[in-house]
Design brief:
This is Glycosyl transferase, family 2. Keywords: Glycosyltransferase, Transferase. InterPro entries: Nucleotide-diphossugar_trans. Belongs to the glycosyltransferase 2 family. There is one protein chain. By secondary structure, the chain is of the alpha/beta class. Helices cover 38% and strands 21% of the residues. It is built from nine helices and twelve strands. The protein has helices spanning 24-34, 55-62, 76-90, 109-119, 185-191, 203-213, 245-262, 266-289, 293-308, and strands at 14-20, 42-49, 67-71, 95-99, 103-105, 123-132, 139-141, 144-147, 152-155, 171-172, 180-184, 217-228. Helix 6 (203-213) packs parallel to helix 7. The longest helix is centred in the C-terminal third of the chain and has 24 residues, at 266-289. The protein is globular. 44% of the residues are buried.
């Protein structure tokens, strides 16, 4: 990867932000796949997000082309990415790409993503089409939709076979996943960084909504393809038995944050809170019946904090 910096005036510069907490083998696989990409003007900013084994230095030794940012503690998905995004804005990149460390990419994925922005001047944020790494014909995410009356975010295409999707169709989204999210620098400066209060989960929905509220469009670029090794850094949300109490807490709390921030109108808010009240009551009963007391307690803490904490915290940006 000798293609670093801003000397290429034809291809906009892209900062690729990868946050590493654990799973060094997955991060290495991600970096190896990035070594094969065809896009000529990018730099990888790797954030060691408080890894226990000082993995960042090991990764820097093996991949000297990366720019390493070290945090002494785990700042979560939000804080880790914010370190990288702030650095990217300071360095004047045209685009910022958030990329999970447990992904692998097709060689032309970044060409396709950046190309979509040149064709659509109002596009502020876009994601790749993401498949499961273990089954590369099965979709993990083709974007996100939001059911306003219930305050729930849904993943488009999850679990579908590749042949079941209309991949040629250009689709605008309600939100894009932070697993692979390319953001135009101008849009990012208008809305600020990720809200640190989220820590992890639903922060991508939040920044997507903030970007849309500024008049930008959000899309999925269906010919930009990557693969996701699900639950690389934290357990999958698809199976309750794999969820830690921390994930239960964050999921419950942040869903309430989502309603507070992005469901508007008294009746819609009441409808959304009522739906989640029923849902979380069922969760609590299930945890108690299964003897999962720590998860039940984590759920209650999440609900209390989701109600009591004001999530509308702006993230300051570095100077131009």
């Amino acid at each position: 990867m000798e293609k670093l910096g801003h000397t290429d005036t034809v291809h906009p510069s892209v900062a690729i932000i990868i946050v590493h907490w654990k799973g060094i083998d997955l991060t290495k696989a991600c970096l190896r796949s990035l070594q094969k990409i065809s896009y000529p003007n990018y730099r990888i900013l790797l954030v060691d997000n408080g890894s226990r084994e000082s993995d960042g230095k090991k990764l820097k030794a093996e991949f000297p082309e990366i720019e390493l940012i070290i945090s002494e503690k785990n700042l979560g998905f939000t804080g880790g990415n914010n370190l990288g995004m702030a650095k990217a804005l300071e360095q004047g990149f045209d685009f910022v790409l958030l990329l999970n460390n447990d992904t692998e990419v097709e060689a032309d994925f970044l060409d396709k993503l950046v190309g979509a922005f040149s064709q659509q001047p109002k596009l502020g944020l876009a994601q790749a089409l993401i498949f499961f790494n273990a089954d590369r014909e099965r979709v993990w995410s083709a974007g996100g939709s939001f059911v306003d009356a219930l305050g729930i975010s849904k993943t488009i295409g999850y679990g579908k076979r590749k042949t079941e999707l209309d991949l040629a169709k250009s689709r605008q989204l309600d939100w894009a996943t932070g697993c692979c999210m390319l953001i135009r620098e101008k849009a990012l400066r208008e809305v600020g960084l990720l809200r640190d209060v989220f820590f992890a989960y639903f922060e991508d929905v939040d920044i997507s909504f903030r970007i849309r509220e500024k008049g930008w469009e959000i899309g999925v670029v269906s010919d930009a393809v990557i693969y996701h090794t699900v639950a690389g850094s934290s357990k999958s949300k698809s199976t309750e038995g794999t969820l830690s109490p921390t994930v239960i807490y964050l999921t419950a709390r942040n869903q309430l944050f989502q309603i507070k921030l992005h469901v508007h109108g008294f009746l819609r808010k009441m409808s959304a809170f009522s739906y989640h009240g029923v849902k979380f009551s069922a969760w609590f009963l299930y945890f108690c019946l299964r003897g999962r007391i720590q998860k039940a307690k984590a759920l209650l803490r999440g609900l209390v904090d989701g109600i009591s904490i004001d999530p509308s915290i702006d993230r300051p940006l570095p100077p131009r």
